[in-house]
From TrEMBL:
Taxonomy, superkingdom: Bacteria
Gene3D superfamilies recorded: 1.20.120.1810, RNA Polymerase Primary Sigma Factor, Winged helix-like DNA-binding domain superfamily/Winged helix DNA-binding domain
Signal peptide per UniProt: none
Record has Lipid metabolism as a keyword: no
PROSITE patterns listed in its UniProt record: SIGMA70_1, SIGMA70_2
Gene Ontology BP, a term: DNA-templated transcription initiation
CDD domains: Sigma70_r4
Function: Sigma factors are initiation factors that promote the attachment of RNA polymerase to specific initiation sites and are then released.
Domain RNA polymerase sigma-70 per the UniProt entry, residue ranges: 122-135, 291-317
Family: Belongs to the sigma-70 factor family.
Official protein name in the record: RNA polymerase sigma factor
Example GO molecular function: sigma factor activity
Keyword terms, alphabetized: DNA-binding, Sigma factor, Transcription, Transcription regulation
UniProt organism field: Thermogemmatispora argillosa
Amino acid sequence: MPTNARRTSRSARKAKHGCHEDPVLAFYQDDDELFQDDDDLVAGDEEGLEEEEEDETLDNAIRKYLGEIGRYPLLSAEEEMELARRVAEGDIEAQQRLVESNLRLVVSIAKRYNTQGISLLDLVQEGNLGLIRAAQKFDPSRGFRFSTYATWWIRQAISRAVAEHTRTIHIPVHVVEMIYKIKRITRHLYQELGRDPEAEEIARVARLSKERVVELQGMAENPISLDAPLTDDEPYHLADTLEDTRATAPAEAVTHRALRDQIASALELLNQRERQVIEMRYGLADGYCHTLEELSAHFKLTRERIRQIEVKALRTLRQPIQAHLLRDLA
């Protein structure tokens, strides 16, 4: 297998070139989508013109790789069956020939996953690993061609690489495949209807529920960092706009403080036992409103005696509103 596929670089965007006699290069250069962002994947922001020099280097590497794999002839169904039989017997040379004859299939699949997160050469390399796995497990007795069987393994390998390297939040490979499916259906319906399709329309074609389609569309969105600036001119970040639901509102904090001060002043009119009974009865001591039975056990007095102390203490406070304030605070 050519070693060029192991080379790594950033994502490239191909410029149009003249025709080539090599049919593989012609296929590669005539496909407008080969170096375009594929909506099947969640890509980042578009690269600027400063990438052109690196893009040209990557173009050359890909053209060289395609030229190399174009030398391997395609196989007939009979040849595939014979090679698969030999692979099952442990023939390494047969496995290598089966793989090399289908390297162009990997490129045709990888181009549909081309994104700025992973370069096309890296996608091809991941797909090649899936192709090797397919060659090892292919069973011609099932009645279908090797390319049909290998496509699933190639897509799985590429999808797994994309899921692991291009997303902040991990998504299982089978879910990533469903996201790709929803994206493809959405593009097709947009071309057919001339507008953005509704979730119900996508669900009908995908044979999924509307809720599942909406869920998958949400998973396809790019995560936004809480440290992302709101604007270029302001030093504020997205996190600054989020409400802290655990924090007390300023107005509520002021009211609560004033209420506590008022209650503290009122409790100074009581003796020590009366104050303790009121504090425990209304949760002023530990935030827990104790029952008469609990207070009876604590002070070693009867429930009736505790009730009498409570009534006397509230009467001492004189202002009935104070009792309501205690309950509001609790």
